[in-house]
Amino acid sequence: MSGLLDVIRSGSAIGDPRPWPRFAVDADGWIGIGQDIADGRGKLVSLWGEAGAVHMAVMVAEDPGIAIFSLDCPERRFPSLGSLHAPAIRLERSIADLYGLQAEGASDTRHWLDHGRWGVGHPLGSGGKAAPGESTYAFLQAEGPSLHQIPVGPVHAGIIEPGHFRFTANGETVVRLEERLGYVHKGVDGLMTGTTPDRGARLAGRVSGDSAVAYAFAFANAVEAALGAEISPRAKHLRAVMAELERIANHLGDIGAICNDASFGLLQAHFAVLREGVLRTASSCFGHRLMRDRILPGGVAADLDGRGIAELRDLIDAIEARFAPLVEIYDETASLQDRTVGTGILRPALARKFGAGGYVGRASGHEADARKTPGYTPYDALRFETPILEAGDVNARVWIRIREVEQSLSLLRQILEGLPTGDVMTELRASGTVREGVALVEGFRGDIFVWLRIGSDGRIERCHLRDPSWFQWPLLEAVIEGNIVADFPLCNKSFNCSYSGHDL
To answer: Is residue 124 within 8 Å of 77, Cβ to Cβ?
Structure first.
């Protein structure tokens, strides 16, 4: 049975994906790699399918950093990775729904994205078949005296995406939480197929509205890697400016929302004012509050002039002046600390097992930041720290956000001080051959993964995007156990997983 490093060292890469290699494996090799991941010798980055094959991306400590492994499935079956490594379970269920490829030995074969409303089964597989309508979803059972269930959602109060949460509780104490997602599935895999890279970038930027920059950044990097294109240093730095603005805006909004869920609306109001300042500056500098469609394969669609640079510097000064006093209020308000400290604890071992990225993982001791490992331009030439805490509670997730805001402000200053001159767009040309590209970019929630294949005609044959929420949603189920039902909104907001990014 071949293991992870055995396959990599064999040197038998296929498909020429860039910048990381892809290897063909057989069923035994697939299982061996899965066992290595389960034993901690690699981290699952993503798992996806297409008609007749499954692929997984794995991060390893040794060169090349990330490797992709492919298994042909002529009989539409493959050995279950989820039976060895729990983070793969929901990805396998999605592969079955979309492509009809079944994971043999899987512990959970329930539908995940398919709610029985498509009218066709595995629509992206080799010839979809008619499917029955929606049936009752079989939630997992918990047995014991005095247990009752509380269904929440999928429709929630306010403007929020849909998701169903099924609580089993003993009085107010949560014994089990099970999620059902997929309500905002929008067929991104299918929409990407056959489109141009420019159109694909616009689709990528709409996967999750709060991460428009990060998704477009990752997609553009993957396209450029596939085509062997080198874009201008100025465009790379402007992408980082947008990415850090997006990170700051989302962290400010999250910190305020967590305070509001702990019944301290005053801080939410102040953080909302700061966030609004970021969005208005983004609109003034780049032409859109969320900077949507500003990053395209080949560069960026908007440049910064002297006025824009001055506005960004004024924004940094304003946030630095107002942010620290608000943080002090948070830290010294006993009623807030009573709600956030010790609530919703994610154990470090579980965070590492799921490879949780972003503030969820870093608040539980899991140091993962794609800007550093594997790294990409321009962050490889910038100075910044990745904040790490061990407590793993709501309070720790707040403090990681606080420290990341501070680091992002420092990064913006560095980028603006050393912003290169030059053009911001480079024309990309189809290579005339089939090419593959891979990218891993740090969004505000964590790492966003993109793998794509571009045909000889320059159109996308297959594109897979993976949101960090895939490895964070299951952990929310774990952290709420033993807490009271009333603390779920607080735990949920401290995770702030994306429904839309998950329900591709």
So the answer is: no
- Positive or negative CA dihedral for 19, 77, 500, 157? negative
Beta carbons of 473 and 463 less than 8 angstroms apart: no
SS3 of 391, please?
Answer: coil
At residue 132, the pLDDT reads: 66
Give dist(CA 34, CA 80) in Å, integer. 9
Tokens of 43: 């981290």
Residues 403-428, buried b or exposed e (16+ Cβ, 10 A)?
Answer: bbbbbbbbbbebbbeebeeeebeeeb
Tell me what percent of the residues of the chain surpass a pLDDT of 70: 98
What is the H or E stretch that residue 219 is in?
Answer: helix 212-227
pLDDT at 1: 45
Provide the CA 344 distance to its chain's centre, in angstroms: 21
**Lowest mean per-residue pLDDT among 4-8, 197-201, 272-276:** 4-8
Span 322-348, average pLDDT? 96
Structure tokens at 289: 């509050």
Torsion sign across C-alpha atoms 409, 410, 411, 412: positive
Q: For 280-330, how does the pLDDT look when each residue is reduced to its tens digit (9 = 90+)? A: 999 999 999 999 999 999 999 999 999 999 999 999 999 999 999 999 999
d(CA 302, CA 271): 28
**Where do the DSSP E strands lie in 171-233?**
173-180
φ/ψ of residue 85, rounded to 5: -140, 105
**φ/ψ (deg, to 5) at 159:** -95, 100
- Distance CA(78)–CA(160), nearest Å, equals 36
The number of helices, as runs of H, and strands, as runs of E, in the chain is 16, 16
Q: What is the 3-state secondary structure (H, E, C) of 335-384?
A: HHHHHHCCCCCCCHHHHHHCCCCHHHHHCCCCCCCCHHHHHCCCHHHCCC
Q: Which residues of 132-170 are buried (b: 16+ CB within 10 A; e: fewer)?
A: eeeeeeebeeeeeeeeeeeebbbeeeeeebbbbbbbbbe
- Please tell me whether the overall predicted TM-score, pTM, comes out greater than 0.85 for this model: yes
Beta-strand runs (E) in 431-496: 435-442, 447-454, 460-466
**AA identity, residue 130:** A
Length of the chain: 504
Comparing 403 with 156, the larger pLDDT belongs to: 403
Mean pLDDT score across all residues of the chain = 94
**SS3 readout for 419-437:** CCCCCCECCCCCCCCCEEE
Is residue 90 pLDDT above 80, yes or no? yes
Q: Is the distance from CB of 75 to CB of 22 less than 8 angstroms?
A: no
